[in-house]
Amino acid sequence: MTVIEQLTVTGFAVARDVTLSPGPGLNVLTGETGAGKSIIVDALDFLFGGRHGRGVVADGSESARVLATVRVGEERLSVERNVRLSGRTSGRIDGETAPAERLRELGARVIDIHGQSEQLTLLRPSVQLAVLDAFGGLLDQRDALAGQVRELRALRREIEAVSLDSRERERLLDQLRFEVDEIARAGLVPGEDEALRREQRRLASVERLLAASASALEALDAPPIAEAIAALEEIADGAPDA
Prior knowledge:
- The chain is of the alpha+beta class.
- Helices cover 52% and strands 18% of the residues.
- It has a six-stranded antiparallel β-sheet with strand order 2-1-3-4-5-6, with helices on one face.
């Protein structure tokens, strides 16, 4: 037997904090228009993977949350789904992250919502297959095959992870080859760094000496010194040869 033992709706439209504990057998929700009966149905639809955006978040709330305790046969599950004002949704089954597809699969076993323009459960291909498997007595074989499919998918994920690691290694090797090639083309030799430092110091000294020489020439070209040099040259030109 599949039953919802408890349903808690928080910050979902007008249902700001509602907890329902359905009893065995038929349960009926009654109330005047606008009391929130449809909100409970919408909350169940959202919980089990329905498409509801941030518009369901109640005014003044940061998020909407629907939590249910569900008994499926002998198994009791805690199912939760949230939607934030950003529109981001998250779901969990027994504390483990569950995508919307997994919630819908569980919901197909728990609830069946009927209303205007709603499809009946028997129109779902997955339910049709389940009925055929049950009628043919193939449930054990189906479960065994499902287990093998899960193992196959896990192996494929492992292979993909190994492939990614291999591609990452190739990328690193290409990078290292490029760097080694760059070093080889540079033609570096042992002790070259010290020789370059000496050359740098020498060139730095040359620049300093050139700057000092330029300053000296500029000083010699100044008017007083230039006139003195010209007078000395005239005296030297007029002096008799020794």
